[in-house]
Amino acid sequence: MVLGASGLILGWLTYLLVRGFLTRNVGQVIISVLVLLVYGGMISGVFPTSAGVSWQAHLGGAVGGVLAAWWLHRRSSHHRSRTVAVGRRPSR
């Protein structure tokens, strides 16, 4: 049975970690490292270690967090590059 918020929490954790490194923003990277230091032990929950613990939900949340960070980073990068291209005036 897959029930609980731990998969969601692990998804947020991996989202924060991956997003910080994708943006290469110093502040976000520092926050990512702090989150990893405080909650990094949760990452071991993606492996089947204990009976009755839904590692599938943990793994799904982690994969979802990585995909969401990648997709949102790619989307915002595309939006920024489009805005810059639209803002340019044609040269004569």
Automatic annotation (TrEMBL):
Chain ranges passing through the membrane: 6-22, 29-47, 53-72
Domain of life: Bacteria
Main location: membrane
Signal peptide per UniProt: none
SUPFAM superfamilies, per database record: Rhomboid-like
GO BP terms, alphabetized: proteolysis
Pfam families for the chain: Rhomboid
The Peptidase S54 rhomboid domain, residue ranges: 2-74
Protein name per Swiss-Prot or TrEMBL: Membrane associated rhomboid family serine protease
UniProt source species: Microlunatus panaciterrae
